[in-house]
Amino acid sequence: MTTDSKRKGIRLPRPLAIFVWAYMVWNLLPVVAAMAFSFNATRSRSQWQGFSTQWWSGTPLSLFDNEEYTAALKHSLELAAMTTVISTVLGTLLALVVTRIRGVAKRPVNFILMIPIVTPELILAVGLYLSLTFITVWPFSVVELGTPAQVVGQVTYTVGFVVVIIRGRIAVLGDGLEAAARDLGAGPIAALVLVLFRLLMPAVLVGAMISFAFSIDNFVITQYLSSDSSTVSIPMYLYTNARGGNTTPALNALATVLVVTTLLAVALASLLYRWATRRESVASDVTGTVALSA
After folding, report:
1. Is 96 exposed, middle or buried, given 0-12, 13-18 or 19+ CB atoms closer than 10 A?
2. Within a 13 Å sphere around the CA of 76, how many CA atoms are in the beta-carbon half?
3. E strand or H helix at 87
4. pLDDT of residue 8
5. What range defines the domain where residue 200 resides?
6. Alpha carbons within 13 A on the beta-carbon side of 263
7. Residue 238: which of 211, 219, 216, 264 has the closest Cα?
8. Cα gap 185→161, rounded to integer Å
9. Mean pLDDT, the chain, integer
10. Tell me: the pLDDT tens digits for 11-23?
11. Does residue 280 contact residue 231 with C-beta atoms inside 8 Å?
């Protein structure tokens, strides 16, 4: 099989393709409709009355002129930024450590790291709330409900995904490159930083973007660990006000910001990974072509 034939892929049968497209439309149509009504000319969130940007800016009830909306948006971005930085650093370090563990300790460590991923988010949120509220020993006693607890909860939930992503990258790379650097005279730290970490950078960037996406649209953990109105995030505000009779399409605008930000984070993660690994893909294609020619 040639390289060109590999890239062509496999054509789906027409019924299966129709089913896939129908499923995608079914998922996207409600979201697109909700986003479209953020540009409605009237207060209605169900009947289209013409195009207008008044719910985004320019009126006291618009998204960027309403204090409650902007506070929720600001808090969500702050949580996402802190969670992304902490989860990425911890996840990278944990992935490096776990891949070097040998013996009987490897399986228990892997199991513990997977607990936040496989545990239902509601159970994790309740457990964190009870731990931070009723356990009075360190470190639980120093974390208060509100922004600190929300960051701790979101990091606990997202760090496992970062570990999985980076461990997958380490498994693809293998330990040959780091060993080669050691054979050429590099010390342990130099081999780790100058060789392995640079090659892990695509996975680190993807892990960061995925952490950001998970954080900014997280509701359950953020809700349980909030303290007052100053720690209300966008998902929390949407949940509280979505069914209110006095809400305006500015709420749709807030939801649009959440959707677009999440999609941009995921798209950026994909683009960064492709950009960072493009040379490896080219090298792989060249190697494969040479091997086939031989």
Report:
1. middle
2. 29
3. helix 67-98
4. 53
5. 68-277
6. 9
7. 219
8. 34
9. 81
10. 768 888 888 889 9
11. no
**Tokens of residue 71, six digits:** 């506070």
Helix 147-173 vs helix 106-118: crossing angle, to nearest 10: 130
Number of structural domains (the chain) is 1
Give the span between the Cα atoms of 291 and 285, in whole angstroms: 10
CATH number, domain with residue 125 = 1.10.3720.10
Sign of CA pseudo-dihedral 260, 261, 263, 269:
positive
Q: How many CB atoms lie within 10 A of CB 164?
A: 17
CB 56 within 8 A of CB 63: yes
Q: Which residue has the tokens 């969670």?
A: 83
Per-residue confidence (pLDDT) for residue 179, from 0 to 100 = 64
Token pair listed for 220? 């359950």
Rounded to whole angstroms, the Cα distance separating 220 from 124 reads: 9
Catalogue the E-assigned strands of the chain: none
Strand residues in 39-150 grouped as ranges (E) = none
